[in-house]
């Protein structure tokens, strides 16, 4: 019997397969693959858990952001209301101030008018008295002067008593 290369290749293959079976390589490969599959499964479970946590955190932060935006909008609205109230109050106070100043100015004008009228009357009375003195002095003689003087003294006496 002549052994050619094919025979030796077949014998080598059979010996290799026997050695692989004797060393339990398929079981080791199966366990290794199972272990790797378990590791991958646990990593996928961990990734899923982390994804759920991240989604929960995202939802919580979005809720907090929305609340913060609402708070900011409320603060802005309150500031606008307060500014409007302050503006209205300032406008009212300004109008009251202007009204008081106008009333005070009008009162001062009336007082000045009264003072001017009084001054004009006093000046007119003084001028009339001076003119009357000149007229009386020019037209009156000594007897008329004495009679007027006596009459004025009598009037003063009656008023004092």
Automatic annotation (TrEMBL):
Which GO molecular function entries does the Swiss-Prot or TrEMBL record give? proton-transporting ATP synthase activity, rotational mechanism; proton-transporting ATPase activity, rotational mechanism
Q: How does it sit in the membrane?
A: Single-pass membrane protein
- Stated name of the protein: ATP synthase subunit b
Q: Name one Pfam family in it.
A: ATP-synt_B
Taking the first listed entry, what is the main subcellular location of this protein, grouped into a coarse class?
A: membrane
Tell me which domain of life the UniProt entry assigns to the organism this sequence originates from: Bacteria
Record's keyword terms, sorted = ATP synthesis, Cell membrane, CF(0), Coiled coil, Hydrogen ion transport, Ion transport, Membrane, Transmembrane, Transmembrane helix, Transport
Give its localization.
Cell inner membrane; Cell membrane
**Subunit note:** F-type ATPases have 2 components, F(1) - the catalytic core - and F(0) - the membrane proton channel. F(1) has five subunits: alpha(3), beta(3), gamma(1), delta(1), epsilon(1). F(0) has three main subunits: a(1), b(2) and c(10-14). The alpha and beta chains form an alternating ring which encloses part of the gamma chain. F(1) is attached to F(0) by a central stalk formed by the gamma and epsilon chains, while a peripheral stalk is formed by the delta and b chains.
Q: What does this protein do?
A: Component of the F(0) channel, it forms part of the peripheral stalk, linking F(1) to F(0). The b'-subunit is a diverged and duplicated form of b found in plants and photosynthetic bacteria. F(1)F(0) ATP synthase produces ATP from ADP in the presence of a proton or sodium gradient. F-type ATPases consist of two structural domains, F(1) containing the extramembraneous catalytic core and F(0) containing the membrane proton channel, linked together by a central stalk and a peripheral stalk. During catalysis, ATP synthesis in the catalytic domain of F(1) is coupled via a rotary mechanism of the central stalk subunits to proton translocation.
Q: What stretch or stretches form a coiled coil here?
A: 33-96
| HAMAP family with a match to the protein in the record | ATP_synth_b_bprime (MF_01398)
Q: Name one GO cellular component term.
A: proton-transporting ATP synthase complex
What's the encoding gene here?
atpF
Q: Which family does it belong to?
A: Belongs to the ATPase B chain family.
Membrane-traversing stretches: 6-25
